[in-house]
Amino acid sequence: xxxxxxxxxxxxxxxxxxxxxxxxxxxxxxxxxxxxxxxxxxxxxxxxxxxxxxxxxxxxxxxxxxxxxxxxxxxxxxxxxxxxxxxxxxxxxxxxxxxxxxxxxxxxxxxxxxxxxxxxxxxxxxxxxxxxxxxxxxxxxxxxxxxxxxxxxxxxxxxxxxxxxxxxxxxxxxxxxxxxxxxxxxxxxxxxxxxxxxxxxxxxxxxxxxxxxxxxxxxxxxxxxxxxxxxxxxxxxxxxxxxxx
Length: 245
Description:
This protein is an all-alpha fold. The protein has 2 domains: 3-129; 144-244, Helix Hairpins. It has helices at 3-10, 18-35, 45-67, 69-72, 78-84, 89-98, 107-111, 114-119, 126-129, 131-142, 144-168, 184-195, 208-244. Helix 3 (45-67) runs antiparallel to helix 6 and helix 11 (144-168) packs antiparallel against helix 13. Mean pLDDT is 79; it is low at 107-112.
């Protein structure tokens, strides 16, 4: 089988052949299979086989995508496409998710559960086979200026609110005799949960002025969080309409 035929099979959207759809379904199954062991604390023998089979499929997929990199990026010279592919985002993600299963990391890393966290990167492979996720990424790229502006406003508001609350509640104590905001990080944590209207209730102001600040922060939090939601929804609907046309 020549490289062009391989590329047509492994690259989603290139063709609508039966082999291409089968390949996508198999890879999605491998992704699910590789994530199943992460749902359990104790590893069972069958999970080892799940990991071996899925990793073998991921390694094969990585190699196939590497040897067809020049077909993926025809605007680049073949040699440059081959050399730069390992440094692309998805290639790095694929490699990091494979490494824990082939013994690249020693026991010291496993103590910190790093190998489990890296295996979670495999879920990003779904991006290759889910068109709706690709559309959502396109929406984020299209509206990145607006979204970054809203993010900047949110970060600034969180910092100002945390700074204000930290100084207002600095000398206040809970009924249990503990300081409400022991550190500025506690204030940042409170401001973030309040801005997002989550509010776990584990940290809350006790003074009247502090509660007033909390009320104002909650109201503005709803408005700030609603801005990106509206932008993303409107842009996503616009892209869906374009796709239907």
